[in-house]
Amino acid sequence: METIQELIAARREKVQALRNAGVQPYPYTYERSHTIEQFYQNFDSIKESEQEISIAGRMVAKRVMGKASFAHIQDETGRLQIYVKRDDIGTDPYQQYKKLTDLGDWMGLRGKAMITKTGEKTLHVTEWTMLSKAIRPLPVVKEDAETGKRYHEFTDPDERYRNRPLDLVVNPEVRKIFRTRARVISFIRRFLDDRRYLEVETPALQPLYGGGTARPFVTLHNQLKKNLYLRIADELYLKRLIVGGLDRVYEIAKDFRNEGVDRTHNPEFTMMECYIAFEDYMYHVNLVESMVSEMVKDIHGSYTLKYEDEEIDFAPPWGRVRFFDALNEKTGEDLLGADLQKLKEVAKRLHVPIPEGASVGKMQDELFSELVEPTFTRPTFVLDYPVELSPLAKRHRDNPLLVERFEAYVAGMEICNAFSELNDPDDQRARFEEQVRARSAGDEEAMPLDEDYLEALELGLPPTAGLGLGIDRLAMILTNSGSIRDVVLFPLLRDKEQHSEEDAE
RNA sequence: GAGAGUGUAGCUCAGCUGGUAGAGCAGGGGCCUUUUAAGCCCAAGGUCGUGGGUUCAAGUCCCACCACUCUCACCA
């Protein structure tokens, strides 16, 4: 036996051998009395009472020594050594155990608590049951019991992302990452539910996309013979609900953006958006600050955590800086209201690259992200963005060149975006029209004009604060993950098959 | 999109200035009734990412392509 096909064939023969011996290789249920964690927690009383308990899990290490064997069984809660002896379980069951089980098999084990010579808490098996015979071999990761040093680890990131079940079996820290991600999401739900936000679901398939600046995925509805878009944001639908009088709503959902794939971008990603009537953007500054800081404390037991090489302190209050205050300070100029000419001059002087066909908004964004963003080491709110960058945000009450908008930055990543929602239908129409002009000038990310949404606004959107929070990035920060692929179970990957020449661009 | 790197057995990796592929683990056979990276003995195992090229000879050199990783640029 050698090739993978031969290894699988050998295991199929074991399946047959089990059947021939009257052993079900794929039975229906198994009654387990304890998880492995519970076994350890109650070890003393189980040992004292000499009761038989049962566990179920996957065999991840096997050490046969003639007429007795040790193995390690892994379930979701941990890993336990078992001791199987011929004279305890009988000759036939022992032979079957010894010859017909493999690493990767799911098994149920009944037995009593024992401690080995070397002091390891162990299940002394009286009966074993095959629960599911694995016919494809696992990578074998060996672990030094004392030092915890791991050998022959399954590490190739490509293979890990492509074969996530294997990754989860073999790499315990991966299981932990996804448990933490789940806690992030359930924390947010609880936090918003407690504040009487209503969880709603809006369409992922939309006749017209909107709510962000991004290129969408397009798909075809066969019967309607109509193009539909996968949503790039929930925003416009959620605000329609506020118009309808549901005055606190939120949604946690996948958005889809037809754009590049890299360390911080997956084409589908999870976003939380929430909207509340009768409040403005400052309400959400406070909400984000308390939600995220309490989340960090809840999950890590402390307001500080380590991300890559930085120690990040989430304790409130976070930094607050106004967009133009920060930008003016860095440039030594007053750029509020500056025209394109002036912005380009400043960019040139400070060696900031000037993108082709840059607009005023684009240049402001460029200067800010080049000069100011990298200086945020701790969680920071950036407030009051230029109007050019924010077609759905309400004009600032003190300055019509600005909008009431903020973003929060953590570890150099933008984690949320929020504003006082634009509810003047005529101003909104004018902004949409501006987007349409940008679009025909070649900006493929500019928003289309949404007549149906404008009609909703004409019914009256109360004063509203809105917020979008990137769940994946939050999960990255909370799990100290360098790539979004580490916090998405099944990230989008390119096909591994060879591409023909005409696929190449 | 640009630059750098990686791709060899199921897994982790060697493979020199080109000479026809190696180890450990896993798997097979044997021994072993408290081992823990269990151990000892035996045997087996490879489209060297894909496609071309140079050469008497290519895992190794050249070209193209594919995938992934890192850095940089852009969208959350």
Walk me through the topology.
Elements: H1 4-20, H2 36-41, H3 43-49, E1 53-65, E2 68-75, E3 78-85, H4 86-89, H5 91-100, E4 106-115, E5 121-132, E6 142-143, E7 150-151, H6 157-162, H7 164-170, H8 172-194, E8 198-199, E9 205-206, E10 218-221, E11 226-230, H9 235-243, E12 248-256, E13 268-277, H10 281-300, E14 304-307, E15 310-313, E16 319-322, H11 323-331, H12 340-349, H13 360-371, E17 380-383, E18 395-396, E19 399-403, E20 405-410, E21 413-420, H14 425-440, H15 451-458, E22 464-470, H16 471-478
Parallel strand pairs: 3-5, 8-12, 16-17
Antiparallel strand pairs: 1-2, 1-4, 2-3, 4-5, 6-7, 9-11, 10-11, 12-13, 13-22, 14-15, 17-20, 18-19, 20-21, 21-22
Helix pairs in contact: 7-8, 8-16, 12-13
The structure holds one RNA strand of 76 nucleotides.
Explain this structure to me?
- The chain has 505 residues and is α+β, with helices and mostly antiparallel strands.
- It has three domains: 4-138, OB fold (Dihydrolipoamide Acetyltransferase, E2P), CATH 2.40.50.140; 173-317 and 381-504, Bira Bifunctional Protein, Domain 2 (BirA Bifunctional Protein, domain 2), CATH 3.30.930.10; 319-377.
- The chain has 16 helices and 22 strands.
- The protein has helices spanning 4-20, 36-41, 43-49, 86-89, 91-100, 157-162, 164-170, 172-194, 235-243, 281-300, 323-331, 340-349, 360-371, 425-440, 451-458, 471-478, and strands spanning 53-65, 68-75, 78-85, 106-115, 121-132, 142-143, 150-151, 198-199, 205-206, 218-221, 226-230, 248-256, 268-277, 304-307, 310-313, 319-322, 380-383, 395-396, 399-403, 405-410, 413-420, 464-470.
- Strands 8-12-13-22-21-20-17-16 form an eight-stranded mixed β-sheet, with helices on both faces.
- β2 and β3 (78-85) form a beta hairpin.
- α7 crosses α8 and α12 (340-349) packs parallel to α13.
- The radius of gyration is 29 Å and the shape is elongated.
- Residues 498-505 have low confidence and may be disordered.
- The structure holds one RNA strand of 76 nucleotides.
